[in-house]
Amino acid sequence: MSQTQPEATILELQNISKSYGGALALTEVDFHLLPGEVHGLVGENGAGKTTLIKLLARFYDPTDGEILLDGRDLR
Fold this sequence. Notes:
By secondary structure, the chain is mainly beta.
């Protein structure tokens, strides 16, 4: 009987929050991506989509939480 190994997460957000001054743009966002997965990012105006993308692109640092790429913190 063969056992399959769980796939390694390639991108993971852990408890990500971002604030601008006193205004929260993102609050405690968590998700992970596995190899080969495709995801979409949808939401209302002002929901934090652009902020999340800018955090992933490293234009900003999160106020709280970690962004991990292949298990390594991007900071």
